[in-house]
Every structure is written in structure tokens, then in C-alpha cells.
Amino acid sequence: MNRGLYLYPAISVLSGTLLALQFHWGAVVLALLLVSLFLRKMTFTILFLCFVFLFISFLNTTIQEKRQKTVLTSEPQPADLQIVINDIPVIDGNSFVTLARIKKEKVLIRYYFSSEEEKRKFQYVKPGFVCKVKGQLTEPKPNKNPNLFHYKNYLAHRGVYWVLGVNVFEKCADESTWKHTLINLRFNGLKKIEREFPSSTAGVTQALLFGETGLIAEDTMKAFRELGVVHLLAISGLHVGLVFAVLYYCLLRIGVTKESVTWIGIVFLLCYIVLTGASPSVMRASSMLIVILLSRKVASKLSTIDSLSIVFVMLVLYDPFAVFNVGFQLSFMVSFSLVVSSAVILNTSSSIAQLVKVTVVAQLSSLPIILYHFYEFSLLGFLTNLLYVPLFSFIVLPMTIIVYILSVEWLILFHKHLLDGIQWVSTFIASFPFSTIVMGKPPFLLLVGYLIAIYIVFVGFEKRKYMLSGLLLIFWASTHMLINTYNPYGEIVFVDVGQGDATLIKLPYNRGTYLIDTGGEVPFSKEEWEERKSRFSVGEDIVVPFLKSKGITSIDTLILTHGDLDHIGGSEAVLREMKVKEVLISPNSDEKGEMKKIMKIAGQKKVPVKEAWYPYSWAGDKDGLHIVSPQDEKYEGNNDSIVLYGEIGSLRWLFTGDLEEQGENEFIRNFDLPIDVLKVGHHGSNTSTTEEFLIDTKPSVAVISAGETNRFGHPHPEVVERLKRRGITIYSTGENGAISYRFWDKKGTFSAHLP
């Protein structure tokens, strides 16, 4: 069979899988397949083979999707259960998280240690342990904001439908068998690194050797991501190839026959997949090598593109949901692009020129996937990859392997200085302004356009039309940015930040972007052993990613209604990641501790901070947004929240912060302003939204920003009943997730992220 013919069955499998899971993407892939088959004038045999693979993959995916169901049920009270630890536990601060099996079904285990001594005991719990526990099964929480990571779907694609919150671990016993040998070798390897390597380099060492990134400092991960080299902190095809080449060479040197080396290599690669955590890139590279080695056994030398295609077919038929994994997408997209472009890459004898071409192809082919999942890409990625790839391939990785094997103190110290230096330089370079460019999440048609544009670019490269190809991609990227920036639609979004407030107002044609509050979490005092390395932050994990997904990099005004943490806690991340032109605060609210910290960051960023009270003139006045409270400069907490009245998208809005009864009474004494939409004060507390206030303002829609099952009982049942009695439509972020109002001219529509 001719070189590359296996590619068509691979595309057919992708099309059939996506037709079953996401029809619109399946249709796009099918259209590309049909066009390609027509242009290449394929024989009837190839056409028939493609149809067979498409049908098989569609049927296989449909069957597997129907099998995605649970046999477990949730009980109203904690129950006694027996679990079998199935994966290496992650211990971070006072938390213990792992995958386990209950009645042969995978569940996610969460447990919180009660003491430091208990935490020490759990360091030795590993796969194969059987434990008796008391706990309660709950369903994973769905994603409640547009565009953000969908954790429930992620778990479902791994066959996990329940989270077991464990109250008590009664006893555990090591009942591991030969099946757990490899994963426990991985466990012991990770523990060895934790014991023997300095804390500043243990995380990177674990990532390079075992594909485990949990201990890498957040600053390092962020810097590598912004430089476009985060892939070097994962086990890649390069790692697999290097390790296999060393093994192959050493075995031949000691006199092992080529026949035996082949079989030893295949066994090693299968073991290596488990030892390194079975990431998509390792699965792809190891499986490719195995396919190539086996093909030589049957005297049928496969080309690289055919080997890659066969591996793709095998992995997708085994696990159709792998196509949603970003690592899987990047691994195969970049690999296919490099193989297809190999003629262009290899037509020069200069190693440097080849490295430049490889970097260009890898960067371009990964662009649509990076934008879809992360909304931004690194402007420095091309240069940093040229430097970092050889550095990690020929110095860092080999040295890490040697240091791990020898475990000599002076070598570990030298290794520490090398990695510390790389991390420091990376953080420094990533701090440069404009190191990344935020594009926003491309909608479906734009994403299809990116794929077509990049295909045309590669064709242009083959014909040496570099300038024309580059201009096409720049044109399409500019179109993407223009659509985001000068969108004729405006939007008001009440972001779900749990028990807090964060509201985005984005006006049509980029006339203004305002953010009212940023959410935040109230910290509780903890002992040192309880502190987590990976901390959840509303600002970093919800507000900033949401803004970036909308293509927002600049905020005209950040309004912090008052000094409570659940309204301002995310401001630090917003000020660090966004260009904020000004900050408005309630008079004298900066006397509170957290607000002082935010003011300091604003000062470092040279962002002007202004105190605002009625009647205060500000940038929002031109857009129909007016400050109507507080009425004086004395700060007394909730009732001195900045309150905004606005006429936007043909509706009249009132954004009340945490305004309570006293503030509401003052408002209705001073203003006669009927409204259409009320952002309910103080998360629906019974101290706000009085009957008199509702009678005076006459809202038809009420939006409540409160956390699901929060400890304060917000919204209060009496407030909800009060709103219902008046026939007011109620939206709550706790129940509905993010609430959006999208408008154009004088027409608009409300929508809830969760139905």
C-alpha cells in the first residue's frame, strides 16, 4: 500500500467519533475527508474502507457513550463503604485526593486530615490499599460559567461519576497484587524525589521523569505557559525517543541481539507508559514505536505517517472521549503536522534551519487548540522554543536522569542550581509586557477558519510562498481580534463566583468595559501543615480566565463596591493580569486590611484609585451608568456600597452591592427611579430587598449572586417569596450559574448558563 494511505481511515475514525459526540465538528471533518478523497481521486476500495471505519467508529462511540452510566446511588446519610485505592494519591496540605473503586466503579475520593500525625501516616497509602471508610457520594459539580473548564465532563470522560466525601478512614490494609507493581514503582519513584531532591526542583524533576506536575510551583507553571514551553514539563515524544534510543544502544553494545532488543524494547515501552502516568503524548510516542517495531517483524516497513495513523485509530477506538483531551489534541495535531511537513523541514542540511522550521510548524499547528482551550498564545513562544527545546533535550533531561539514578549529593546540588536558574530566568522573561496576546475563545466558524488558514499556510510553505502564507494567518488572527473588540453586541454577565459578587458590563463596539466587584473567598486561619501548594483563587481560577475567554484584556473601570472579601478578593489577580485604567472605591473603605493590599498593588501598577459617592462624575456617565450611592464620605460597611443605576440595552438596571435595608430606605428617599432589573442586595439576605424598596423600584427581573448551599442560607426564603409574590422573574447564580444579558440596539435576551 502507498505511503500515507492509512491517514484516510484515521480521519474517518475521527469523523465517525465526532459525529456521535459533537455532530457539527464531525460534519466539518467529514467534509474535509470527502474533499481530500475527491482531489486525490481515490479508488473505490479506499472509499469503501473509509466508510467502514467511519461506521465502526460511530457505532463504537455510540455504544461506549450508552455504557457511560453508574451503578452506584447516593444515600442521604454517610454510609460504610469499602474502597480499593486505584491511583497514586495526591496529598496537598490537609487534603487527600485519589481515584478508587467501589463495586468495580471508579470514584473520586476526597478526605481532609484532622492532624499532622494523620497526614504523615497517609504518606504511605498507595494503589492496591483496601480501606473501610464512612462517607457520602455526591455528583461532581458542573461548570457554572461560560467557556471555563468543565470538571464534571472531564471526570465523566474518565468513567468517574461520583465524588466520595470521606468523613472517617476506619482502617486500611495493603492488598496490592502484581497488577499494581508498575504503578507502585511510579509511586516509589515520586516519593524518592520528594525525599532526596530540594523542594524548589522536586516538582520539575517529577515532571521530567514521571510526568507528575503536582509539586511544580504555580509561578513556574505560569511562566512556562506564558512562554509557550509548558509542553517541556510533560513527558513528550522527545523524552520517549531519547530514553528508548539510549536503551537500544546500550543493549546492542553489551551484545544483545537485534531480535531480542526489539522484544525487550516493546516490553519496556509498555511499562514506560504506566511509569510515566499514561499521558497522551507518551501513549502516542510509545505506541508508534511499538507499531514500527512490530511492522519490521512482518517485513512491512511502515512510514511514520502510517504508524501515527494506526496508533490514532487504535487509541480513539479504545477511548473515543480522548478526542476531548487537550493533551491528546496537541500531541496528534503537532505530530501529524510535523510528519506532513517533513519534506519541507528536511530539505536543508542546516540543523539550526531545521530546528527553526520544526518550531514554526509546531507553533502554527497548535495555535487553534491553544486558543480554544486557553484563549491566549505566547508571542515569545517561537524564540523560547528555539532555546528551551535543545536545552531540555540535550542538557536538562539527560542530567535529570543521571542525577536521579546516582543520587549523589553534589550532583543534586548542581542540578538544583541549574533548574533554579532556568525557573528564575523563565519567570523574569514572562514578566515582560506583551509576552502573551489574549485573543479570546474563537467561536465555531472562526476556529474552522483557523484550521483552513493553517492548512493553506503549510501548502504555501511547500511552495516556498512564505510571505503570502504568513499574511493569510495574520489576516485571520486580526479578524478574530476585530470581531472580539468591535462586536456589535453588548453583554452584562453576573459571573458565578460562589458566595460573592462579580458583574461584567461590556458595551457594543468596545465603547466601554466595566467590572463591578471580583468575588473572593474568605480565608480561615490554618497551621503550616494544612496550607496547600495549589490554592483555589476566585480571581485566578474564575474571573480572569472568564475575561480572557471573552478576549478582554483591558478594563475601563474596576468598581469595588465595598471592602468585604467576597467582593474584592479577586481584585489582585485582575490587577495583575488585566490593564485596568482606574479603580473606584467607596469613600474610606480602604481602611480595611484587604483593601489596603489591593490599593498597594494598584499603586505598583500605577492605576489611579478614586473614591466615589453621589453625585460623582466618572467615565461611565457617558454610557448611562450613574453612581447613586453612597450619599456621604463616611464608611459604615454594607450600606455604603457603591450603587450604580444604568440604562443599558433598553433596560434600567440597579447594581446594589451589599446594600441593606438602611441603604435601600435612603435610596428611595432620594430617588424616584423605577427599574427593570435589580441585582439583589447582599446576596439575597433578609436584611435587604424590603417590600417598600420593591414597591418603589418596581423591578420585573431580579438577579441574586450567591453560592450554592452556602453557610449563610442565602438567598433567604422570605426574600425569594417576596420577589415571587410580585411576579418578579428570579435568576440565581447558585442555581443557574452565570446569568447573561446579551443585547443589540434595543433588543436583548437573558440566559442562564445552567438550565
UniProtKB/TrEMBL annotation:
It is found in: Cell membrane. GO terms for biological process: establishment of competence for transformation. The lineage of its organism: Bacteria, Bacillati, Bacillota, Bacilli, Bacillales. GO terms for cellular component: plasma membrane. Its main location: membrane. Residues 499-708 form the Metallo-beta-lactamase domain. The keyword Phosphoprotein does not apply. The chain crosses the membrane at residues 7-38, 44-63, 229-249, 261-278, 298-318, 330-348, 355-375, 387-406, 418-438, 444-461, 466-483. It comes from the Bacteria. Pfam families: Competence (PF03772), DUF4131 (PF13567), Lactamase_B (PF00753). This is Competence protein ComEC. It is a multi-pass membrane protein. Keywords: Cell membrane, Membrane, Transmembrane, Transmembrane helix. InterPro entries: ComA-like_MBL (IPR035681), ComEC_N (IPR004477), Competence_ComEC/Rec2 (IPR004797), Competence_DNA_uptake (IPR052159), DUF4131 (IPR025405), Metallo-B-lactamas (IPR001279), RibonucZ/Hydroxyglut_hydro (IPR036866). It comes from Rossellomorea aquimaris.
